Amino acid sequence: MQLDFSDFTATQRYHLMTQTIIPRPIAWALTDSDNGSYNLAPFSYFTAVSSEPALLMLSVGKKDNGDDKDTLTNIINNKKMVIHIASVEQAELVTKTAATLAHGESELTGSGLSTTPFEHFSLPRLAECDIAFGCELYEIKELGDAAQTLIFVEVKQLYMNENITAKDAKGRLSIDASKVAPLARLGGGEYASISDPFSLQRPK
Q1: Superfamily of chain region 15-190
Q2: Nearest to 157, CA basis, from 116, 117, 119, 115
Q3: Cα gap 143→50, rounded to integer Å
Q4: Distance CA 3, CA 117 (A)
Q5: Which phi and psi (to 5°) does residue 9 adopt?
Q6: Domain limits of the chain?
Q7: Please, are residues 201 and 101 in contact by the beta-carbon 8 Å criterion?
Q8: Mean pLDDT, range 100-105, rounded to an integer
Q9: pLDDT digit string (tens) for 166-194?
């Protein structure tokens, strides 16, 4: 089967892309809503894009009514964000935090999640996540007629639970992915876990 993308609407292309670009990591992004509460939302259009500077990118659409999502509003206003890597055990919580709430209403309320100070960073991190990136806004770009927004953030601080870290044969820090058990996004309402991580020798 071969498909010509010009034959499809944006919604149909989105469906096809999310069905086939798999698995995708999820940015569980915490931002400050300026009213003493924090917004928490997942984004699976998310990746690392550069190491100098150390940049992450997430792509944010609009709310159903056409308004900017709170994550975009908050990062524009406050220039800071904490991106977490959620675990498979947190899949239902991640899904719940995708709900559209009134601006200033926190997804943390009643979730059972808690925040803890993020050393050397102005925003807290989720206490329940093993990996967190303390990020500052680097650049924002809008693309397309539907005004999809790309948010580029620079990593300033990285938190890793010591229980998931080790040293490799070269003495470098390494992560035990099986202990992280990261949640991956598939198409529709489907998610995935990783199983049986393996290593390959890179060509010289």
Answers
A1: Electron Transport, Fmn-binding Protein; Chain A (2.30.110.10)
A2: 119
A3: 20
A4: 49
A5: -75, 170
A6: 15-190
A7: no
A8: 75
A9: 888 788 888 899 999 999 999 888 999 98
**DSSP class of residue 62?**
B
Could you tell me the CA-to-CA distances from 180 to 118, 126, 198 in Å, in that order? Answer: 19, 15, 15
- Calpha distance 89→112 (Å, rounded): 13
Cα distances (angstroms) measured from residue 103 to each of 27, 38, 56, 69, 91? 20, 10, 24, 9, 23
76: tokens are 């524009």
- For 33-183, strand residue ranges (E) read 38-43, 46-51, 54-60, 80-85, 115-116, 125-126, 131-143, 148-160, 165-167, 173-175
Residue type, 25: P
The model's pLDDT over 109-155, given as tens digits with 9 standing for 90+, comes to 888 899 999 999 999 999 999 999 999 999 999 987 777 899 999 99
Query: Tell me, what amino acid is at 107?
Result: E
1-43 pLDDT, tens digit per residue, is 888 999 999 889 989 999 999 999 999 999 998 877 899 999 9
Residue listed under structure tokens 């693309």: 143
The pTM assigned to this predicted structure is 0.92
- Report the amino acid identity of residue 200: L
Element at 78 (helix H, strand E): helix 70-78
Residue 23, preceding peptide bond in cis (omega within 30° of 0):
yes
Q: Side chain identity at 125, as an amino acid letter?
A: R
Please list the residues that pair with 131 across neighbouring strands. Answer: 85, 160
